[in-house]
Every structure is written in C-alpha cells, then in structure tokens.
Here is the input.
Amino acid sequence: MNTAGSNRKRARELLDRLERLYPGAATELEYGSTFQLLVAVMLSAQCTDRQVNKITAGLFKKFSTPEDFAALEWEELARQIKGCGLYRNKSRNIVAASRILVDQYGGRVPGSREELEALPGVGRKTANVVLNVAFGQPVMPVDTHVFRLARRLSFSSGRTPAAVEQDLLQVVPARRLGQAHHSLILHGRSVCRARSPRCAECVLADLCPSGSSVVSPQTPGSD
Here is the structure.
C-alpha cells in the first residue's frame, strides 16, 4: 500500500480510538449564537478557553448581538475583557468586525471563508473554527494542539499551520473533520501535552512514531 493510503488507514484507526475516548467531543467555548462563537474564538487567541469563558459569562449578559458590540467604543469593550491577552487589539477588532456585520450583513455572520477572513482580527484558524463548529463545514482548524499532534503522529512535517492543515485534509475523511478537530485538541490538552506528554497512558501509543522520544517543535502562531 502506498504511503498516502497507509496514512489514511492509520488516521481512521487513530480517529476511531479518539472518538471512543472522547465521545461527543465539542468546543469548550461557551456561546449562545454564531456571533457569540465568533467573538469567543477571537478572544481565545493566546488565551485559554477556560479564561475566555470566565470573561464571556459576564460579557454576553451585557452585550449579546452584533448591534450591541457595534455601538461600543473599543475602549469600553477593552475594560470588559481586560483579563484576556492582547485585549486592546482584540477590542478594536471585535468592535470593527461587529460594525461590518451590522452594516454589510444585517447582523448575520457570513458562512464563507473569504467573507470571514475579511473581518478585522479574523485569520484562517478563527474562520475555520466558525465554519467547522457553527456551519458544519469540512475544514480543519489548526491550533497549537492540532499542530503538535499532527507532527508527532507523522501526518505532517509542515512548519506552519497552513501546511499542517493541508496535510491533514489529505488523510482525514471530510465527514470526520469536525470530530477529529475536537478530539485532537482534547487529547493534546490532557495526554499529548507539549511538555511531559503522558505516552504511557496514551491510547495511540502503538500507532505513534514519536513515542516517548517526542521533542516539542517550536510551534508558530496559529492565526
């Protein structure tokens, strides 16, 4: 069997195991609408989902729609999200993006990559998460966990998130991309950690070329 075929077969087995380990895996971000998901993902850059959820728990009670955020000055929003890294830039981008959504889309979050990436502060990873989670599109968002696992599992030797994404799209069936994304993230957080990976407890150990000899690569920014 050729290498591509072997990788696809191994990917199916890995995904089967991860799905059994993390049944119903989904984003850990808390949101009540597609717009709130977009805001939460924008806030999550260089910030944990847990911290984002702490911030949005109060934020979304005060401001919940694009119209609410569009009416804010960025300084006011910055005060609301101060516990989040890069909060000033994020505030500017969220307010600007909200105004575009109101002015150009009637308050609706668009469902195409091109339109999403045209919004201030929305890069490929953020767009992919929204397309994956909210619209069910067959895309593969690559964050630091997916990047690390794809390399350790030898599905990619790419040095950028975009390169890793393209390699994963070659081996993961389109219908499984959503579940795969979330399962890989959960496994990266709990087992295949950047430092001190728990290889002895890993259900993928016999299929992982890296094994206990993994060395964390320098992970580039994912958005």
Notes: The CA atoms of residues 22 and 58 lie 29 Å apart. The two ends are 35 Å apart (CA to CA). The first helix runs from residue 3 to 21.
